[in-house]
Write a structure and sequence with these properties.
The structure is a homotetramer of 330-residue chains.
Chain A lengths: L17 H8 L4 H19 L2 E6 L4 H14 L5 E4 L1 H11 L5 E2 L6 H7 L1 E4 L2 E4 H16 L9 H15 L5 H7 L4 E2 L7 H13 L7 H14 L2 E6 L2 H18 L5 E8 L13 H7 L2 E11 L2 H13 L16
Parallel strand pairs in A: 1-2, 1-7, 2-6, 7-8, 8-9
Antiparallel strand pairs in A: 3-5, 4-5
Helix pairs in contact in A: 1-2, 1-13, 2-13, 3-13, 4-6, 6-9, 7-8, 10-11
Chain lengths: 330, 330, 330, 330
């Protein structure tokens, strides 16, 4: 312990920007310090110009995070999105002009059911609106050739192209398509996309096949080609899927670098042993994260952390618009 | 509030069986009450002879839960397993005679890395053992016809048949195969199975295609054919995948019954808004769970809850061996 | 890592006792392992015959844990109880023949209010019953001499003596009195005891004075006299109060041993930085816990852990009845 | 559900102030919405000019929150502080010019012990600095008359007066003294204050007596005299102590209003049944919170929430300097 770094008590100021607040938080303790560190590391990633995988789990789009994600895509504050199917379905729902609504989380769910309102904690949407989006997906899926398995990146690029024509507002899928940001969805069948594809298959016999192995191959190639950073909002399949790119690379090509920058925002915790809540130190034992990586785990609800971090990023003025040449996108 | 049910203080007894303890816990408060309720509802499911979907997430097999799961399968205390790929990979690892080991969770992960030991909180296994299992999966995958997409249930049934010949100990996959319990793995690519299939494809061009839409179609058929109960250990894709069967049924066939019995054991919580931690009340608003369902959410680490519940079930003497006619299995 | 200890998958058995289950759990992972470790360490404490401080926070008595605590006192599985005032008030309520009742935690609290029912998550009691207990405390407090400040241990010993005559059922306070187990309550004013004493003072001018500094002096003496172990159910003032005995001893007498055995059962977690959820490793930096202590932190609801642990202890047959000579009790 | 309030996706902006961000967050979901609601309700409290009780638990001062609390006191954004002894001891430590330092939470605690460094998660201070503060408290306590029990409000007012002369920087105790904000510390013996008073008593026989019943009487009077709002950072004794003022009032004076505004920032959760994590709805069943209260529970680490909220408040320009006539302060 050669040098001592004192905690600097945070001083509220009427003139402080969000960026100032985040910078000040890095000198407090506990999760405030981690949020400050996450902000700094994200900026470091952008400066180092590494390839940024962004894992998205939890009901973030219904929770009002869509425009933040669009902002991150538009400004190239991420390079590749790995998401749950649900987020991508709710994104399409909003892109097509439909909304989510606020509700008391202690509402009577039997009444919600009777009114056809599907609840997500303190938020809901009418089921009939979801069904309209189901049909949009089915119409789109009819255009896919069952004989040609598509990676999920291709699936969402094609959907993005179509939705960009039909959109009422911009969303993840449309912005990602326009900005050549690939979207992977490793558990796509486990969502309303899966439901729509199954209903289409059961009703019409048109059975889309997805090239999930292709998803693994492509993301490994991205991880092998670039120096990489990772940002995880929640855990689940997006986190694991991005983490495993380094394991796949090590097996296929030997050596092992690990991701060089790592941020996670999670309400989970290490003591339950699952991958969603595990530390980046644990990931270092596997070689998923580089031994020298810059890392910050923020234990916080992402609906608090993301608006703060994104507002702070907006105030940095960092520009990183130029799309990387992503070969696999249509 | 017409009638009052007093809390009955729990009385320790030298003669009490685990079953007695669980029955006594239903009259205490908080999560103890929920664990007692989960035990009763599981027995109710078995008595009502509903079809039981069992979702398995979290690192349960590395954590020493494999034999409990085999016990549940052998005794038909579950009818269909939906699991993360990781659990099924670690199961194969143990089935082939390899082990997981205990470690202090504060161990130096750089040293672990140098020794090639992959850590899962307080547990680890040598990476070279995992690689042997990777090769076993690749050898198996070579036997699959790329032109014929397989559902994950078919994938694991065929793997179970093969592993049953090679096994050192019984595991989920082998027991499920022998007992005609289908195993679905909606995020199979997001695991060492995905890695093995990608490495095989990259190295040899033999690219297995999985019929994920078929998984959704089949599980919907199971949900439509039977009265159902659900048990979730952790959240993630297994929980969502089983929950969505009822949504798919409602769209395809109209009407909506919802699962009639529901248990979850989770370290997550509702206030973060994600599906993994959401209440069954919330699921009732969607029609995923029946308005009249018997439900218990236990907020506890499954490595505590499962040994207790399984020991209690073993002491009930309930027999439910006869396999249901599952048509899709090979 | 010279020797490897494999995880031993837990095997359910119809003949297993609770003790067997707990012993088996020590070879699994995550919090199951910790519960098994807690059981072993508690037995080690009893064998080593150290002086056991037991900290009790959270609404454990309303939750049906009273008889477990009486069992622990009667069998001398603890030597000194440090509790929140609320637990000791609810204990008196039950000792005098009143009950707590079960309720759905989603009940309408406005209706509860109208009916005069005070809710504690999924449990409640009628307010009028609490007021009867308030009056019992006031009647007792009238017998205390305002000019003679009483330690809380003395307060509860005298109350125990009185309640033992009036009791309908045995409780912590009565059992502790009969078994010469001192009860300390460092935040006594922060509970219905504080309310009753304030109401008495405001209405009659009879103002009881408590010798809180005496509590600190006495518990330091206990910690200095004996080799010690600690068991914490929840955090709060009971945990901190017992932890600080070692700091006080170090200042007063020099040297520092720290508690030699340590168990905590908590739903809190370290990452929030508070003392309630902190690790025993952190406590070692302060010298509160011995560098060589046997320690187990169990992240679990105590309404699950306590019934299991107490049932397991009941099956060990360990007898440790003889009271230690506690000088300060009346 | 007569009217629908859509979720408004949050839009990052380079020109947004912290206040703007908080206002935008009220239209997202989950805990982001709650943080936004807490900000609005705090402002409502200030506008309604109710008497604001502020409960402070958790290691907030070591975590760099001292200046935020001073800011809240100086601007009269709170009227009465109820705190744990630890926060008030660490405040004195910093006020006298000593610091807390940053450390990796995975540091080796045996090494910390050898160097005499006391750790609080990712923060520490040298023990010898704490001992200097202990002596300051003992010197102060010598000036108190053992025959005259002091409320903790009086204890901290007198200490504030003294520390204001000796201070290197301003702290809670000094700012509260200057601004006539009373500080209550219901568990004062459970902290280094208790240790210092016990050491003083053991070494010199000078035994300070605290009038804890007086604390309850005084806070009840404040709750009875004013319309009230409450803000809780963490749970523990501060939360319960403030909550119980309404119960005491109801018993002493009949009727029951309950606190009219209520905010809590907590890392705890309702399902464990304890008071620290319980909902304000539950508190309404007891009459502690008014049936019509405006309420927000924010599940977040206070080291994230407080810097954001305080910065937002600083940008509102609300002025509320004039001290209320608090009769009991010296």
């Amino acid at each position: 312990m050669p040098r001592r770094y004192p905690v600097c008590p945070f001083e509220p100021s009427s003139g402080a920007s969000v960026k100032d607040v985040l910078e000040g938080m890095e000198r407090v303790s506990f999760q405030g310090r981690m949020l400050g560190a996450a902000f700094r590391i994200w900026r470091d990633m952008l400066k180092a110009n590494v390839y940024i995988f962004f894992g998205l789990a939890g009901a973030m789009v219904p929770a009002g995070m869509r425009k933040i994600l669009v902002f991150l895509i538009e400004n190239r504050y991420l390079d590749c999105l790995v998401a749950t199917g649900a987020n991508l379905f709710h994104d399409l729902h909003e892109t097509l002009g439909r909304r989510h609504f606020m509700v008391d989380p202690n509402v009577d769910d039997h009444e919600m059911r009777e009114q056809g309102l599907d609840r997500i904690y303190d938020t809901y949407a009418p089921e009939r609106d979801f069904i309209l989006t189901d049909h949009y997906v089915m119409d789109f899926a009819r255009t896919l050739d069952p004989a040609q398995p598509a990676t999920t990146a291709r699936f969402f690029a094609l959907l993005g192209e179509r939705a960009d024509r039909d959109k009422k507002e911009d969303g993840l899928i449309t912005a990602a398509w326009r900005n050549r940001v690939p979207i992977y969805c490793p558990a796509i069948a486990d969502s309303s996309y899966g439901i729509a594809l199954a209903v289409l298959a059961a009703k019409t016999g048109h059975k889309v096949t997805l090239d999930l192995v292709g998803d693994v191959v492509e993301t490994e190639e991205l991880a092998a080609r670039y120096r990489t950073g990772v940002i995880y909002v929640g855990g689940g399949t997006p986190k694991n899927f991005v983490q495993q790119t380094e394991v796949t690379t090590a097996i296929l090509r030997g050596g092992c670098r690990g991701h060089e920058y790592a941020i996670q925002i999670t309400a989970d915790a290490p003591q339950w042993g699952g991958l969603s809540g595990c530390t980046f130190q644990e990931a270092q034992s596997w070689g998923k994260i580089s031994a020298k990586a810059k890392m910050a785990s923020v234990h916080a609800d992402a609906t608090i952390a993301l608006p703060i971090l994104a507002s702070g990023l907006a105030q940095t003025g960092i520009r990183r618009k130029k799309p990387r040449p992503v070969t696999r996108n249509p």
